[in-house]
Amino acid sequence: MAKGKSANITGNQLEKAVQTVLLDKGFEIEMYRKWEKNPENYGKELLLKNVPFTTIYGHKGNTEFLLLSEKYNLRIRIECKWQQSAGSVDEKLPYLYLNTIEAMPEKDIMILIDGDGFKTGAKEWLRNAVKEKLYTTAENNDTNVMVFSLAEFFTWANNTFN
Q1: What is the per-residue pLDDT for 79?
Q2: What does pTM read for this prediction?
């Protein structure tokens, strides 16, 4: 199997894990574009898929999920990154990080990152950039970016939605 196809399958598995956890926690799952046409037709505990935003380049981009919860007062954009073997996903981490602080409209953003194929230092760079709020300005310094492995996401979900 080609590396790109394998990476895509495992990336999809990471996304399915997120959906499984949140479905189990009572969230309804729907495509963002379907929901936005008639949001009144849905409940207030939602996991929306394929959520658009305008990137730092001014192009249309999408993230995997937007978690909406009236009960827990949450509005969290979720981006999933999986790298099982050597590839180029880790080279996209600075672009992803800059998008989180400059382009994504939500104030709470979760980056779910997992897999053993990232170059040495890549995941650490991302976690440090988030911790140190690298490249933030007075206008976007209040953005709360979280970086979780899949196991950390499970823990977060269990603690948040208990």
Answers
A1: 97
A2: 0.92
Measured CA angle at 143 (ends 13, 45), to 5 deg: 50
- Looking at the DSSP bridge assignments, the partners of residue 29 are 47
Amino acid 118 reads F
Q: What is the pLDDT of residue 11?
A: 72
Write phi, then psi, for 80 (nearest 5 degrees).
Answer: -110, 130
Q: How far is CA 123 from CA 1, 91, 107, 114, in A?
A: 26, 11, 22, 9
For 5, the token pair is: 């196809």
